[in-house]
Amino acid sequence: MTVSKTSNKTVTKNSEGNWLVTWLRRLSILGMLIATFSWLDAIKDRWYVFDPVFLNQLANTAIAASPNNTAGMISHILTNLTQTYPTSVVRINTDSDEWVFNNAGGAMGAMYVIHASITEYLIIFGTPLGTEGHTGIHTADDYFNILVGEQWAFKPGQLEMEKYTPGMVHLMPRGVAKQYKMHEGCWAMEYARGWIPLMLPFGFADTLTSTLDVPTLYNTVRISGREMLGNLMIGKI
Ligand SMILES: *[C@@H]1O[C@H](CO)[C@@H](O)[C@H](O)[C@H]1NC(C)=O
Ligand SMILES: *[C@@H]1O[C@H](CO)[C@@H](O)[C@H](O)[C@H]1NC(C)=O
């Protein structure tokens, strides 16, 4: 009896010690994860290939080269990008027939993915009908270059709207949210830089909870996955 009591006590003491050790271990793993992520976040700039200023110039030359012709602007953008960036540095999807619906934040349009990697994406997004919704709160900076039409936006506290017209760029810094409206028909070249995979839940939420458009979901995952992997394979993170 006595022996077993003693051994029980020992066991209890040991498991208390183990409990502490386990939690210290968990805390130190958490600390290391946080340190790793903040380090990655601090150095992510080195993986960026595209330049927001260059892209805005490109949007403007595309508009000037093909006035009133959205397809012409897109083809101008593609020709320039494929001439500017070697295929060894970045993967560009030149299949401009590869359009998919995009439902997010209550807004709806179509997108063509020109580039997608872990830290950047470049798409053509818009609709000839107009749409309106929540921009989402993203883990990336978003440069929305208007090609055709107008985009309107506001955030709580503003009593007047912001208005973006062709050639202008609407910068949405990471963490910011607005209501936006693509008034009537509007097309834009959207460039995002930051942590792209963390933006995907917002990109899929409307499909999963509302449209249940499985072919679109499938194609979006297929195209984005293919582009991200293709970029990883040439070392573009
Ligand atoms: C691409 O567009 C930029 C911006 O308009 C321009 O400076 C550059 O010369 C163009 N490059 C090619 C290869 O057309
Ligand atoms: C643009 O094209 C549309 C349809 O072809 C036409 O109605 C409109 O007048 C054109 N606008 C300009 C500025 O050329």
What attributes characterize this protein structure?
237 residues; alpha+beta; Jelly Rolls; 5 helices; 8 strands; 28% strand; binds 2-acetamido-2-deoxy-beta-D-glucopyranose
Q: Report the span from N to C terminus.
A: 65 Å
* Structural domain count: 2
State the low-pLDDT regions, or none.
Answer: 1-7
Q: How many helices in DSSP terms?
A: 5
Average pLDDT score: 92
Q: Could you tell me which ligands this complex binds, including any ions or cofactors? A: 2-acetamido-2-deoxy-beta-D-glucopyranose
For this structure, the CATH topology of the largest domain is Jelly Rolls
CATH architecture of the largest domain: Sandwich
CATH homologous superfamily identity of the largest domain:
Jelly Rolls
Strand portion: 25-35%
How would you describe the shape? globular
CATH level-1 class of the largest domain: Mainly Beta
Largest sheet: 8 strands, antiparallel
The helix fraction, in percent, is: 40-55%
Secondary structure category: alpha+beta
Order of helices and strands: HHHEEEEEEEEHH
Radius of gyration: 24 Å
Task: Give the arrangement of secondary structure elements.
Elements: H1 2-43, H2 52-65, H3 70-84, E1 99-104, E2 107-116, E3 120-127, E4 131-134, E5 140-154, E6 162-164, E7 169-172, E8 179-194, H4 200-211, H5 214-233
The structure holds 2-acetamido-2-deoxy-beta-D-glucopyranose (NAG) (2 copies).
Pfam families: ERG2_Sigma1R (PF04622)
Protein name: C-8 sterol isomerase
Keywords: Endoplasmic reticulum, Membrane, Receptor, Transmembrane, Transmembrane helix
